Amino acid sequence: MRHFDTICVQGGYTPGNGEPRQIPIIQSTTFKYNTGEDMAKLFDLESDGYFYSRLQNPTCDLVAAKIRDLEGGTAAMLTSSGMAATFFAVFNIAGQGDHVISSTAIYGGSYNLFAVTMKRMGVEFTFVSPDATDEELDAAFRPNTKLVFGETIANPALRVLDIEKFAAAAHRHGVPLVIDNTFATPVNCRPFEFGADIVTHSTTKYMDGHGAALGGAIVDAGRFDWTRYADKFPGLCTPDESYHGVTYTERFGLGGAFITKATAQLMRDFGAMQSPQNAYILNLGLESLHVRMKRHCENGLAVAQFLAGHPNVSWVTYPDLPGSRDYALAQKYLPKGSCGVVSFGVKGGRQAAETFMRGLKLAAIETHVADARTCCLHPASTTHRQMTDEELVAAGVGPDLVRMSCGLEDAADLIADIDQALKASEG
Ligand SMILES: *Cc1c(COP(=O)(O)O)cnc(C)c1O
After folding, report:
1. Which pLDDT score, from 0 to 100, does residue 244 have?
2. Alpha-carbon distance 238 to 247, whole Å?
3. Which of 73, 243, 261, 342 has the fewest Cβ atoms within 10 angstroms?
4. How far apart are the CA of 37 and the centre of ligand 1, in A?
């Protein structure tokens, strides 16, 4: 296997003699076969190939292969969004009557998916603090627990997960650990190296990195032995009648069972497929991911340090800032840096934070992160505006909180913009 940076640039696709240098966009819903028998083999999962782009598309598979290699996994698939990736990764092994343990420090959309929508589907969730002890984690397991879920760096709380602690707990109870690695990206952390079994991504964020294409990905480390706990994972270890009795672990091995099942069943039935056009755009982003992440982190740290010394700022959360709550975990899991997202409190609370936001000239107000262009959000006046100050504090998103996603601009310009907006917020 080549080095990481080379995989970013050239992974997934190696053109033959006279073939296109850039990955081809296979803009076709369907694929032609000479005989019905040829196609029947595909439907029985007996041979590899494409028949309908709702399930698989060659452009998407090339990009999925690059992400698989960046994470160090055995199989990967793209999805239409990060939410679809999270849903598929969980629903592939947990259904009605099952139970899942999740860290409380996760993306708000994932929390809603778990606590509201999947609950309606009959899946029960227990949310545990990322600070939970081994004993507290052990106590959360039930006989019907099917997986543990967490985020490497939580959006927006910026908590760093102790992946080894969560993986050990999951494995003590015979279930896999699923990690959303969106904010860290495999440039800064490869969760499989710390015991995670499945990784998900919102590729909409740093992987695309230009605010251009929505997307998601799921990668399997290929190490979790479903067959050792076959009674827990019948969907992977017993025949699938909707595919002529295929048993995924037998036919595709530990390396391929999870992703093949998610493609064959969930893509077939839900169709949350990434478009080949978006996969192409995502690949352009991946080609510079290793270069961009370094700069996002440099700018994030420079802004965090500036904010930490500013008289109009009451607190700063950034995992790489010495003295921050998860500094030790960040040093262990994210030695190259965490991400470009910094959150902080503007002195003077909600009013001052709103004035600060109005004063920004370079940073744009957006509900987005991980873009090349710096963007900024004040949840209390936008995404969380229906909540009272007390409710905001309880949700960990105080009225003074501003989330700044540092882009790829010159740090001096970002700092000058923040400084003048903070001065204006004094008023
Ligand atoms: C944005 C995000 C998601 C959801 O991704 P979409 O592509 O917006 O569906 C999931 N997890 C994390 C950590 C995110 O930041």
Report:
1. 83
2. 5
3. 243
4. 41
Q: Which two tokens stand for residue 56?
A: 């698989």
Q: What is the DSSP string of 100-166?
A: EEEESSS-HHHHHIIIIIIHHTT-EEEEE-TT--HHHHHHH--TTEEEEEEESB-TTT-PBP-HHHH
Residue of 112, 155, 375 best suited for mutating to test ligand 1, as the one with most atoms within 8 Å of CB: 155
Q: What is the pLDDT of residues 112-159, one digit of tens each?
A: 999 999 999 999 999 999 999 999 999 999 999 999 999 999 998 899
pLDDT at 427 exceeding the cut of 80 = no
Residue 110 Cβ contacting ligand 1 at under 6 Å: yes
Cβ atoms within 10 Å of 198's Cβ, excluding its own:
29
Query: 3-class DSSP state for residue 374?
Result: coil
Instruction: Please classify residue 332 by burial: count the beta carbons closer than 10 Å to its beta carbon, then call 0-12 exposed, 13-18 middle and 19+ buried.
Output: middle
Residue 101 has pLDDT above 90, yes or no: yes
pTM: 0.97
- Distance from the CA of 222 to the center of ligand 1, in angstroms? 24
The closest residue, in CA terms, to atom 7 on ligand 1 is 82
CA 24, 28, 31 angle in degrees (round to 5)? 105
Answer whether residue 49 shows pLDDT above 80.
Answer: yes
